[in-house]
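does this look right to u?? zinc ion version
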Amino acid sequence: MSHILIQGGTVVNADRAFRADVLTQDGQIIAVGENLQAPSGATVVDAGGQYVMPGGIDPHTHMQLPFMGTVTMDDFFTGTAAGLAGGTTSIIDFVIPNPQQSLIEAYQIWREWAKKSASDYSFHMAITWWDESVRRDMGTLVQQEGINSFKHFMAYKNAIMCDDETLVNSFKRAVELGAMPTVHAENGELVFLLQKEVAAMGISGPEGHPLSRPPTVEGEAANRAIAIAEVLNVPIYVVHVSCIEAAEAIARARARGQRVYGEVLAGHLVVDDSVYRHPDFATAAAHVMSPPFRPKGHQEALWRGLQSGNLHTTATDHCTFCAAQKAAGKDDFSKIPNGCGGVEERLAVIWDAGVNTGRLTPSEFVAITSANTAKLFNIYPQKGCVAVGADADLVVWDPAGTKTLSAKTQHSKGDFNIFEGRTVRGIPSHTVSQGELVFIQGDLRAKTGAGRYIKRPAFGPNFAANRLRAETLEPVAVIR
Ligand code: URP
Ligand code: ZN
Ligand code: ZN
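got this back:
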């Protein structure tokens, strides 16, 4: 039997923080309390002056993703290992079938790729087309394979974009199965048109990327997806909310009593759109992702969304491409592979910009980096909580430790870091994954294949419980 005793720290859960030792045995937490005794042979970690928190869960990553004619730099091993170095002990990645490809076939391919994961992982399934086989396979995936969330790309026309017919069919089927529909909210038709118009103005560089994907394009899609979900009485989760328009759409719907949830990327909280005007193509292109980084004012709206509870989770959309891959768009910004990294840096960036500034308490930090994701995707309290019986996925957090983030020292295989040069205060000193110490004071001991596929059960019958429809509410409850 293998034991770890984490001694003398402050346990931080989403609901409270308290002084306690934590004892793990073979992958589970078996005791949380004061003055715990170390069983013989136990490894003892001194957490004096530190926080002991549930390991981070990143609900939005793309490891080994084939996308825009290339494949991301990080595979499931290098990507999850980087996560462990930053205190993230689970990821939820995406299976993305090509249009007309069987969902089950794509799922099996991704399961195979993910076998090398160093940390636990799970999958959302993207719905990129529709027919009766898709409806049937959604059922198989929920009932037999533990997938309880379906992703819909409202952008990427002529590739993986969903039209409204597919959205409606899939949302309806998802709720029937007790699964959460999620959306990438950008109007793909408008992006397609704007890309052409921006190019026609003679703009071919990365500065054209945000011009072709303005906040209104995201706001329109968020409002449309939320309206469809309202009519169908389906809860909905909006991934990578990047702007005021989308955040307000979510806040309005929630004020009407609709179950709408929002995810924010660490990058969108601290990086602004000036990066696209960098004179060096490689630097500007390295920041090309969708939705793009926004003018600074949007960042405050995202922070307020997290603080008020109108936005719920934080992620990275970790999707790394190197300079040579980004160069595919040298003469045409619309061909630059979309994606940036961050799985290693998310916790430290959010702690530094969120907790150190007083925007978030440590418990609120745990909520938005771990517990809320576990709840929304139905793996709580197995994950997202320091409690007896939970998985021994933990991060020992040194609030006084500092680090300057850089591509030179990151564990990701990517050659760029969107947080380059940022010095953060608050870093992991130890990461425990499945009861094993995998990161000790800068020493990463990630093991290929140690991660497990985590099944996420369907939600129960009250998932889409009848609620008052907006029309029946007094107008006073509606923010216009
Ligand atoms: O630019 C991004 N976000 N790339 C990954 C695919 C997606 O839209 O999530
Ligand atoms: Zn997306
Ligand atoms: Zn993504």
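The pocket of zinc ion (ligand 3) is lined by residues 60, 62, 317, 319 (CB under 6 Å). idk if thats expected tbh
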